[in-house]
Every structure is written in structure tokens, then in C-alpha cells.
Specification:
Length: 530
């Protein structure tokens, strides 16, 4: 059974179990990620395991548990696993075959401990003449550069025939070596997936295995059909991954000097990393009042070829385009390998054209403020716990005095969580005056105080903390390396929205892309200082 969680889609795993039960196998094994996990709350964990166990109780055959990173996310969850299910790693024999269940989250962290490596080396040494050896593990450590302890098990497997099943990545892959050893990364059975088809390794399925005299026979039963075991393999994987990831195309960001333009230029860069010809079609969105111009909307690229395709926008009526009024602009790029052949692979990918403009900072004036709004936030990370503006809404303004910047931020949040440590609700400010990023965390408390970073010399206070939080922060120029005659500064803001104390991954709401992330682009969040 493949991954259930990590973006779980309700009801899919239950249906997969129902269909597996109809096939009457001898038993079922998972590759982990059975519950959402990532918690330290006993009641929440208990409810998650009870819900899963109730599904397993409907089966007519045994179910063997394999731990994934959601099932054992920390040391405490590993202790809970042991109390409920016993040892997270184990082995057993059935009709002359040896089954090894590996624990790739040993100690609540990715990898296999030395102790576990010794355990499986011993188990393999004690069973040299089995019909076949099967390994089940969550993370496909065998495919990583650093095998995180699996190299000990791999060494002990030398000289025998085996089949290895893993999961974690939510997209299917198959390979076999010259000795007949097969290694599979399974797809999903309800875990997060774009479900773009079996040919891209994105499908919900059950894996059926029959051990014959000549070795295992493997078939994947999609929840709506059958899938060959080598649907994604060593020969086609590079093309599949190129199209599935969308990494073959980039849309360069554009930064204007003003919020309205007669036209704005952009650029699409396409790279073909494969041996085969890549045909690409570029499609632009329909936006009222805006016209896209592109002279090369269809291109073909040979092996290793890179092509830059310029485009531009302008107002349909010949006037100006107001950048702040534009909706998010997504360019669709359709890549196709083997066009017109039986092995044709085609898939669209959407890339956002990130647009920004340089804002002119006001001189501080309490009677006038130009507010920027995170409504919705420009960028989210770990955003599954943010439920929209009714959950958390933030506005801010940034202005300047002779020797300091003044930030005022207003946060409306349905739950303000004031905790000790890194998980408390907090405001993070980023500045770059040309000498590198400076980062400051300001943490509100339930007593109405605003805790500033150690050694911070500016003023920082909460003007209101019951209901709406209102931050008033003065940042001295020398704190961020800003000279008195500096003409501009790059800025970003993040709010950590944390709604329940057991959650270890609260949502992070950014005004501009997280600095240093793949979405970050030069010039975003630039303010011109008067």
C-alpha cells in the first residue's frame, strides 16, 4: 500500500483498502505515512491512530505496519509507535520468503541507525537460503547520495536476489539491476499528488505481488485500472521528471521603477536536458485590459539546447498597465517529447511571472500612511494551517525619518498564540541596504510587551495587543547598515501564524518571496528613500 498522508485526500486510502480486500491477498504491507502525525499532542495522535486502525479492522487478512516520516515525526512519536505496535523495524518469514521491514525514521529523524543496520545484517546472515527477500521501507534511501545507514543493509544483501519497495516521494519509479533485483518507489493511495497520470508516476494504486518459481510478478492496480510495473523506468525517467517537475522552463521576474507602465518586458527561458527533441508551446493568460505580445510562442529544442523567448505586456487600449491591479500572472508552457510517436509524453506546467515595482518611501507622518497588505499574503510556506484572511490578515507601512525607518504593522488573527521558544507568533523583518541581509524577530507577549532581538537598539512596542496586534518599530539606520545618504533599501516581512501549540510547522506569511528561496528574485520589495 503506497503513501496515504502528506496532503491526504479523504476517503482514497479507505477505498484502496476495500479494493485490496476484494483481491484476497495473503496479507498487506504498507510503505508508511499512514497518519498525518507531526504532533506532540497525545489526544490528537490517539485519534489519528484509532481512525487508521478502524480501517485496518475491516480487512480479512493481516496488515503489516511500516513507519513513515508522518507516523514517526519525533522521538516521542517513536515511543508511541513502540507502545502501540512494537518494534518499528522487524523481519519475518512466509512460505520460504524473507520479509524485512526497515525503519527509515530511526529516532524520529531520517535514516537508519547503526543498531538497526546490525539487526538486518544479522537477519540476512541467518537466512541465506530463502526463496526470495523482500524489503519494505518508507524513504528510498537506496536512491540518495548519502544512503543514511542503508549502505550497511545493502552490503549484507550482496549475492542474493531481492525486491525493494519504498514510498515517500508520491511519484512512481521502477528500476532493475543486472542481477534481477527490482527497486520500486510507489505512487500514492490518497497522499498528495497532482494525479497527472501513470505515465508520469502520479496515480493512486495498490501493488499486487505474486511470488512464483521464477521470482516475483508485480502488477499495479490503479484504482480505476491496471498499470505495468515499468511504466516509469530508467529509460524514460529523465523525460518524465523534466516534464513533471517543470524545471525545464523559467520565467524571469520583472521589476519596474513605477507602479504603472506603458509596457513591461518579460522572458521565458527553456532548457532541454534530454537527448530527444523537446517541443514547447507558450500560452499566456487572458487578462482584461492587458495584451501579451510574443513572437516565438512555439519552439523546438534539440539535445542540451537553451532558448530565451522574450515577451511583453501593454494595455489593450494603449494606456497604462497598473501593476498593483494585475492578478497573479501565470504563463502556461506545454512541453512534449516524441510528438507524433507512440511514446509521446506531453504535460503543461504553469510558472508565475513575478512582477514588482520600486516603492517610494514616505517621510514619517502619523496622519498619512500608505499600507501594503498581505491580503492574501504574497507568499506562503507551510501554508496548510492558514485558512484565508479571516484566519490572519496583515497590513504594514514603512516610512523614514532622518536616522531611522519606522514600521507600523497591524495583524488581525483569529488566534494569537504566545509561547516560549521559536514557535510563538512573531513578526520577522528583513532588510538589505547593500551589505547583506539583516533579520530581526519581534515577539509579542500576552502581557502586551514586544520582545526585541538581543542587542537591538531601536524602539519597539505594541500599541494594541487585545484583538488586533499593532506593532510600532523604529529601526536605526546603523542596525541595518544603511547610510544617511542611501537612496534605497530592500525589505521583506514575515508573520508566523500559529493556531495550536502542538503544531510544529506553523504557517509563514510573507509579503515578498522568502529570501534565498527558489521564488526569490532580485529587486523585490525595494523602497526608494526620499
Amino acid at each position: 500500500m503506497p503513501d496515504r498522508t502528506g496532503g491526504m485526500r479523504a476517503g482514497v486510502f479507505r477505498e484502496a483498502l476495500r479494493k485490496a480486500n476484494l483481491m484476497h491477498p495473503e496479507f498487506l504491507l504498507s510503505v508508511g505515512d499512514l497518519i498525518d502525525g507531526y504532533t506532540l499532542d497525545p489526544q490528537l495522535l490517539d485519534s489519528q491512530w484509532k481512525e487508521f486502525d478502524q480501517m485496518v479492522d475491516t480487512l480479512d487478512m493481516p496488515f503489516y505496519y511500516v513507519p513513515g516520516n508522518h507516523d514517526i515525526s519525533n522521538e516521542w512519536m517513536e515511543e508511541q509507535w513502540r507502545e502501540r505496535l512494537g518494534q518499528p523495524y522487524y523481519h519475518f518469514q512466509y512460505k520460504g520468503a524473507l520479509f524485512l521491514v526497515l525503519h527509515t525514521e530511526d529516532g524520529g529523524r531520517s535514516g537508519i541507525s547503526a543498531e538497526q543496520g546490525v539487526y538486518f545484517a544479522k537477519a540476512l546472515a541467518e537466512h541465506p537460503d530463502v526463496r526470495w527477500t523482500f524489503l519494505f521501507m518508507h524513504r528510498p534511501l537506496w536512491s540518495y547520495g548519502n544512503k543514511e545507514g542503508f549502505e550497511v543493509v545493502e552490503k549484507a544483501l550482496r549475492g542474493r536476489t531481492y525486491t525493494l519497495f519504498s514510498g515517500h516521494h508520491h511519484n512512481y519509479y521502477y528500476e532493475a539491476d543486472g542481477s534481477g533485483n527490482e527497486r520500486l518507489i510507489l505512487g500514492t493511495a490518497g497522499g498528495g499528488s497532482y494525479l497527472r497520470g501513470a505515465e508520469f508516476g502520479e496515480f493512486d494504486h495498490i501493488t499486487h505481488v505474486v511470488l512464483t518459481e521464477s521470482g516475483p510478478k508485480i502488477t499495479h492496480l490503479s484504482l480505476d485500472g491496471f498499470v505495468e510495473k515499468d511504466v516509469v523506468n530508467e529509460e524514460n525517467r529523465a523525460r518524465v521528471e523534466t516534464l513533471r517537475s517543470g524545471d525545464f522552463v523559467q520565467v524571469a521576474a520583472s521589476v519596474s521603477s513605477r507602479p504603472y507602465v506603458a509596457s513591461l518586458e518579460g522572458r521565458v527561458t527553456i532548457e532541454n536536458p534530454d537527448q530527444s527533441v523537446l517541443d514547447v508551446e507558450i500560452r499566456f493568460p487572458e487578462i482584461e485590459g492587458v495584451r501579451f505580445q510574443c513572437d516565438r510562442a512555439a519552439v523546438s529544442l534539440g539535445k542540451g539546447e537553451t532558448v530565451d523567448v522574450p515577451f511583453s505586456i501593454s494595455a489593450s487600449n494603449g494606456g497604462a498597465v497598473y501593476l498593483d491591479r494585475l492578478p497573479p500572472v501565470f504563463v502556461e508552457i506545454v512541453g512534449t517529447y516524441g510528438r507524433g510517436t507512440v511514446s509521446e509524453l506531453g504535460l503543461p506546467t504553469r510558472k508565475q511571472w513575478r512582477i514588482d515595482w520600486q516603492r517610494r518611501m514616505l517621510r514619517d507622518d502619523s496622519a498619512r500612511r500608505d499600507y501594503e497588505a498581505l491580503d492574501p499574503p504574497g507568499y506562503l510556506t507551510q501554508g496548510w494551517d492558514w485558512h484565508g484572511p479571516e484566519d490572519c490578515l496583515l497590513h504594514f507601512s514603512l516610512s523614514s525619518l532622518v536616522d531611522r525607518l519606522v514600521l507600523r504593522a497591524e495583524v488581525e488573527d483569529d488566534v494569537h498564540l504566545f509561547l516560549p521558544g521559536e514557535l510563538s507568533d512573531r513578526l520577522r523583518l528583513y532588510f538589505d541596504a547593500g551589505s547583506g541581509a539583516k533579520v530581526f524577530d519581534f515577539v509579542p507577549t500576552e502581557q502586551g510587551e514586544l520582545l526585541a532581538p538581543k542587542g537591538y537598539t531601536g524602539a519597539a512596542s505594541l500599541l494594541n495587543w487585545q484583538g488586533k496586534l499593532i506593532f510600532q518599530i523604529e529601526i536605526p539606520f546603523d542596525e541595518i547598515g544603511l547610510a544617511a545618504d542611501s537612496s534605497q533599501v530592500r525589505f521583506n516581512l514575515r508573520y508566523l501564524d500559529h493556531d495550536w501549540s502542538e503544531n510544529q510547522k506553523p504557517s509563514r506569511l510573507y509579503w515578498k518571496p522568502e529570501w534565498g528561496s527558489e521564488e526569490d528574485f532580485e529587486g523585490s520589495g525595494t523602497f526608494i528613500i526620499p
